[in-house]
């Protein structure tokens, strides 16, 4: 009887102690931290809430180290990147073992290609390179060059051995390009790194590709502004968001001008030509990777085909603006405003 009483007391004491410790953690004032870093050819803006400066420092350092690591694998601008080494093996009948990151991004790319009837295609490298060179030097690619580049494009030419995480690029001169999915993936990975530090209220803007975690403490979501676009002539819209990804694709800064016509840095895999009517696409999806890939796909599809495609994935939100000379054509999926008022879970 005595023994049991003492046990009771000890038990009560330790229970009170652990509740107190827990309360100290939960109650610790969460401060907001903001960082901006030039990465992957854009400025990355990271914001999150954390209980201490020291944790925020370690966590943000880990995020940026992770993004640098991803860049070394996924960038087609770096000579020695893993993706460029894989591209160099194209057409040699060779299986190449790839890292988990490259495998994941490639597998997701293939998924989004299949889902969008090839409008998104990470094998667009040869076409992208051709247009990039033409934009830099100020000439218009010749038909023959476009034809030649297109021969080495097609997501079906990528074979993945999912068991062994090996990849084979079937056609000579193929070149992978993750420009339309890499930043969204990096944004998702940033939130994943923060989760390891129990930082859940977080937001990363990877130059127009956003990954958004839990809402800031005592708020319903993160405030995001889809900016006004001169050409689109739309009012800016402020959105309150949590637990989702948002991507905006547009050719405001990157395009080739030829005979008064603008050709976007996003190209149609079926024609190998930069988009001419596209102005801006914003997609909201469950994460940054999906939003990034789908914003590019819907840009390629345009309003008419985009509307049809949306019927197959009505859980995402799409806002598409095209131009027809002076006139702009807008299309918003019917769920768009609802999603953007923070209702996505
Ligand atoms: P942004 O760079 O404005 O975020 P995107 O996410 O749409 O725009 O990515 C565009 C980049 O993706 C291009 O610079 C190019 O490297 C690549 N790309 C171009 N067309 C396609 C396409 N149809 N499918 C996949 N990637 C593409
Ligand atoms: Mg994209």
The radius of gyration is 23 Å
Query: What structural class should be given to the helix and strand makeup?
Result: alpha+beta
H and E string: HEEHHEHHHEEHEEEEEEEEEEHEEH
Small molecules bound in the structure, each named once: adenosine-5'-diphosphate, magnesium ion
Which fold does the CATH topology of the largest domain refer to?
A: T-fold
Q: What's the CATH class of the largest domain, please?
A: Alpha Beta
CATH evolutionary superfamily of the largest domain: ApbE-like domains
Which stretches are poorly predicted, pLDDT < 50 over at least 5 residues?
1-25
Number of domains: 2
Main sheet: strand order: 1-2-6-7-10-15-16-17
Question: Mean pLDDT, nearest integer?
Answer: 89
Main attributes of the structure:
eight-stranded antiparallel β-sheet; disordered N terminus; 2 domains; single chain; T-fold; three-stranded antiparallel β-sheet; binds magnesium ion; 345 residues; binds adenosine-5'-diphosphate; alpha+beta; 9 helices
In short:
With about 350 residues, this protein is an alpha+beta fold.
Fold and architecture overview:
This protein has 345 residues and is α+β, with helices and mostly antiparallel strands. The chain folds into 2 domains: 5-72 and 184-341, Roll (T-fold), CATH 3.10.520; 82-169, ApbE-like superfamily (T-fold, Orthogonal Bundle), CATH 1.10.3980. 41% of the residues lie in helices and 26% in strands. The protein is built from 9 helices and 17 strands. The protein has helices at 2-27, 53-74, 82-87, 100-115, 125-137, 143-151, 182-196, 288-312, 336-343, and strands at 31-39, 42-50, 96-97, 158-161, 166-169, 202-206, 209-212, 222-226, 237-241, 244-250, 255-258, 261-264, 267-268, 273-274, 278-285, 317-324, 327-332. The protein has an 8-stranded antiparallel sheet, with helices on both faces. Strands 3-5-4 form a 3-stranded antiparallel sheet, covered by helices on one side. Strands 8-9 form a two-stranded antiparallel ribbon. β4 (158-161) and β5 form a beta hairpin. α7 (182-196) packs across α8. The longest helix is centred in the first third of the chain and has 26 residues, at 2-27. It binds adenosine-5'-diphosphate and magnesium ion. Residues 120-122, 124, 128, 177, 179-180, 208, 249, 265-267, 269, 292, 295-296, 300 line the site of adenosine-5'-diphosphate.
């Amino acid at each position: 009887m005595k023994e049991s009483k003492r046990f009771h007391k000890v038990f009560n004491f330790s229970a009170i102690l652990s509740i107190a410790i827990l309360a100290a953690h939960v109650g610790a004032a969460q401060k907001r931290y903001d960082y901006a870093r030039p990465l992957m050819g854009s400025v990355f803006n990271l914001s999150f809430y954390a209980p201490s400066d020291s944790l925020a420092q370690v966590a943000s350092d880990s995020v940026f180290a992770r993004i640098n690591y991803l860049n070394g694998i996924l960038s087609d601008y770096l000579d020695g990147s893993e993706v460029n080494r894989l591209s160099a093996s194209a057409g040699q009948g060779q299986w190449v073992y790839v890292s988990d990151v490259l495998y994941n991004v490639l597998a997701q790319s293939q998924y989004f290609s299949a889902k969008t009837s090839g409008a998104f295609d990470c094998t667009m490298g040869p076409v992208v390179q051709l247009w990039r060179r033409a934009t830099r030097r100020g000439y218009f690619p010749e038909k023959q060059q476009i034809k030649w580049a297109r021969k080495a494009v097609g997501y079906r030419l990528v074979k993945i051995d999912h068991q062994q995480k090996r990849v084979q690029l079937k056609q000579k001169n193929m070149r992978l390009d993750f420009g339309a999915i890499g930043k969204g993936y990096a944004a998702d990975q940033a939130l994943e790194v923060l989760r390891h530090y129990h930082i859940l209220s977080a937001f990363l803007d990877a130059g127009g590709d956003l990954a958004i975690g839990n809402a800031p403490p005592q708020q319903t979501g993160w405030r995001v502004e889809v900016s006004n676009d001169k050409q689109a002539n739309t009012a800016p819209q402020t959105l309150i968001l949590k637990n989702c990804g948002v991507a905006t694709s547009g050719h405001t800064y990157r395009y080739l001008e030829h005979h008064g016509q603008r050709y976007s840095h996003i190209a149609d895999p079926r024609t190998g030509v930069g988009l001419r009517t596209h102005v801006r696409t914003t997609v909201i999806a469950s994460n940054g990777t999906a939003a990034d890939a789908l914003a590019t796909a819907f840009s390629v599809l345009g309003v008419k085909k985009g509307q049809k495609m949306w019927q197959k994935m009505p859980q995402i939100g799409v806002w598409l603006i095209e131009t027809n000379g002076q006139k702009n054509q807008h299309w918003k999926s019917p769920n768009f405003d609802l999603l953007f008022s923070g209702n996505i879970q």
